[in-house]
Every structure is written in C-alpha cells, then in structure tokens.
Amino acid sequence: MKKKMIVVVMVGIALLLVGLGVSKVFGLGFKKVAVEELDVPGWRMEQSISNPNYEFYKDEYDIVRNTDALSGAAKKYYSKYMDYKAPNGKAIRLLAMDQVKDEQLLYAHSILSFYLSSNENIDKTSIANQMADSHTVLIIPNGADRDGKTPMAAMALGQNLNQMEIANVGSKWYIDCDYQHRDASFEEIFHMVHDYGVGTRQNPGADPAIAEMIGLAKDHALPLRESDWGKKGLWGFNSVNWLKELSKEGSLEQEYIVSVIDSYYGLWDSWADGQGGMWGIYCAKNRKEIAEKDPKGKAIVDYFLNENIDQMLRVDPSFEGEFFMTQEESKPYTTKSQYLQKISLTGSKDSALSANELDNTLMGNSGFNRIDGKSGNDVVQFRGHSGQYTIVQKNSEIVVTDQVQGRDGVNTLINIELLRFTDKDLKMEEHSM
Question: Is 20 part of any domain?
Fold first, then answer.
C-alpha cells in the first residue's frame, strides 16, 4: 500500500513538473502589461524640418506603444516596439516588455543604428538588408538574463537583451559604472548584427570578408592547442569550459569580437575588480591596451566601426547636474562618455553639458541648461524654427531662449560655433547681436 502511495506521489510530482515546464514554454499565466500612450505635444506634431543639415534623431514619440497589430508571440508577450528601417525599406524590429524604459529602448535603437551606419571603409547596406530580409528581431524582456521569469516562447523570437543589462547614457547604472547592471547592449546587439547580417565562417552572411577578418583575429587571440585555452593567449582566461562550449556551438568568433568592442568603447576601463576586460576574460581593458596587446582585434573595430559614437544619444531624464564628455579620473563614467560625439539632454531637470575635443552636436532639454562645446567646431541643435527663439549675447556667453514652453528651455552656450534650427543654421561669427 505504501509503495503504491509513493508511486502515486511520484507520478503527481512528475506531472506537476511537466505542467510547470509546459507553462514555462507557452507562457501560461504570463500577463502582458499594456503601456500608456504619450500625449504628443503640439510643437512635436507641428514640427517641420526644412534645414538640409538638420540631424534627425529618434525620441520617445517614435515608440509604438501597442503591439495588438502584431501577431503571435510578439503580440502576446511584448508591450511596445520600434523599427529600424533598412535601406531596402524592410524593418529590423526591437520588441520590449512593459518594464523596459523608453530611454533603454531608444538607446538600443541608437546602438543598432551605429553598428549599421556605413563609413569610409565599408558600405553596410547589404548587411542591414540581410538582417531585414531575415526578419531579425531584438527582444528586450523584463528582468535579468536567465532569471526564469520570461516564457521561452517569448525568448524564441530573436536576439535577447534584458532590461536589467541596459545602462543607457546618464542613467544611475551608467553614471555609477554599476557592473551588477553592466551594459550588455554593445555585446548583444553586435551578436545580432554578426549572426544575422555579417555572417560567420560557419554560416556565411552578407560580408564574408569581415567574417573572415574576425575569424582570423580570434584564431590569433586563442591558443592553437586546446590544452592552453584559458591559460594563454589574449582571450578566454580562466574560462576553458566556456570556451569548449562555445567551440561546440560554433560561436567563438562572436564572443571574442564583442570583448574587443566593449573595451574599445571604454565599457571596462573603470572595472576595478581585475585586469583586462569582460570580467577579466579579455586581455585589454581599454583602447590603448587593445592597440598594445591585440592589434588584430583593434584593426577590425577600426575598419568596421567609427572611432567615436556618432549617433545622437540621449542623457537619461533622471540625470541632474553636469554631464562630462572628456575623461576625468574623478568621474569613472567618462571612460565611456569620452567617445560620444552627439548628445541630447532630456526631460526637464536643469543640467549642463561639458563636451570634448570632437566636433560635437549637442542638444538641451526643456529646463535651464549650460552647454560648453570646449574645443572643436560645435553645434547646438534646437527642436524648432529659428523665429521661435530669442538670442542674446552676454559677454562670452550666448543665451538662447525658446518661446515655446516645454521644448528647448533656456540654454546658456559657451564655445559654440553654430546654432542649428529646423529651418536654418546660424553661424555665431556671422551673427550680429
């Protein structure tokens, strides 16, 4: 009798576990949370851009906040999305759940745009088109990676980047260099571009030449003898089991190159718990060390990507104070911000921007802002027509006041060479105050 009861209990437990597994796979009990629509201000709806030099950018009003028009798992599990339009007119979609902040989604879109922007070395049209033709999707679920809270059916839609690992510019995680929430955006989004666009040695894509360059650099970084993996070389330190797993998956190249990219753009320079980057797996912590220790890796990033991030990135609206774009030892986040070229304050908190030696494009928010372009030929871009602003010179400073409430606020400018409005550019040297 006791044996029979034990069997019944065991069968019951097995059925429960199976049920939990089915629930996990199909998301039984998962409830999508709708996000509120934004009230679009009148100035945004009426905005007309005739200035051919105006630098377009995405903002919170470009996010689609309802997925009911989508189908399948995208509709069932995700609450909002943005599309990156490839040159062929097709979309690379970024899907996000409800806890993903707008600024995190916009940041991910900007990183993707940065990766897919052509430069003087390479035309990336075919790469972007390949991704769009393949219906490539970036999914941004709530929570942390592998926390067990996201249904597998939701995860199966595309490349994963979790909400808890997006440290967008100016956020607390970004400013504090919080490696408990280390920014995985560069890593995961490049995985997507690599796998579904560029291609790899094993799975050719739109650019076999770049794939081979990455493969050769990985070969150089990893010891030839497997017995030396994790001990010698440039990458994979103390990670021999992980390396063997990657080898079986055919993803050594992908994991190697993102380690280079992370260090190249300063994401590990303020990590104080060890040598090198990517948790000590990679030999170099910053761009200087890459040049010294892994020139083959640096050559790929130099060729495929721009030296500085030239997409318009947004400082989180929670930020208040002065945002610095020149590296300063007392401000660890500047190991990252030194490579930013175009920055916009957001929200309404009174803040300041201190730029770098690059030719910057800078934007304020709706509060009282102080913007110092430092060296270089710097532009401050505004969201409206020049006739809607007053411009007053006070000694070496220029004060630009927006007459439309809730848009560009009041901006005190220093070391700025040009004002850019939606209708025209205004050079400071030619403007009579």
Answer: no
Confidence of residue 395 (pLDDT cuts 50, 70, 90): confident
**b/e 363-377 (16+ beta carbons within 10 angstroms → b):** bbbbbbbbbbbbeee
Sheet holding 397-402, edge to edge: 321-324, 351-354, 368-372, 410-414, 397-402, 389-394
Looking at residue 197, the DSSP 8-state letter turns out to be I
What is the pTM for the complete model shown?
0.93
Determine the Cα–Cα distance for residues 398 and 323; give it in Å rounded to an integer: 19
Give residue 413's identity as a one-letter amino acid code.
Answer: L
Tell the burial category of 352 from Cβ atoms under 10 Å away from its Cβ (0-12, 13-18, 19+): middle
Is there a single domain that holds both residue 87 and residue 182?
Answer: yes
SS3 235: strand
- Strands 321-324, 159-160: parallel, antiparallel or unpaired by DSSP? unpaired
Rounded-to-integer distance, Cα 137 and Cα 160, Å: 9
Q: Are residues 283 and 355 in the same domain?
A: no
Same domain? For 164 and 262 the reply is yes
Domain that holds residue 327: 311-430
- Per-residue pLDDT tens digits for 368-379: 999 999 999 999
Based on the domain organization, do 146 and 291 belong to the same domain? Answer: yes
DSSP-assigned letter for residue 195: I
190, 265 contact by CB (below 8 A): no
Decide which of 282, 304, 326 is a domain's last residue: 304
Strand order across the beta sheet in which 425-427 lies: 309-314, 340-344, 361-363, 379-381, 418-420, 425-427
CA 397-399-403 angle, 5° bins:
175
**Per-residue tokens: 72:** 């399948």
**What pLDDT does 5 receive?**
42
Q: Would 317 be classed as within a structural domain?
A: yes
Measured distance CA(233)–CA(259) in Å, rounded: 14
Which residues, listed in sequence order, are joined to residue 255 by a DSSP beta bridge?
Answer: none
Written in H, E and C, the secondary structure of 296-314 is HHHHHHHHHCCCCEEEEEE
Say if residue 169 is in the same domain as residue 280: yes
pLDDT in tens, 253-304: 999 999 999 999 999 999 999 999 999 999 999 999 999 999 999 999 999 9
Q: What percent of the chain has pLDDT over 70?
A: 93
Which structure tokens are listed for 46? 């009426």
User: Is 220 exposed, middle or buried, given 0-12, 13-18 or 19+ CB atoms closer than 10 A?
Assistant: middle
Do the domain assignments include residue 8?
Answer: no
DSSP reduced 3-state for 64? strand
Judging by DSSP bridges, how do beta strands 389-394 and 397-402 pair with one another? antiparallel
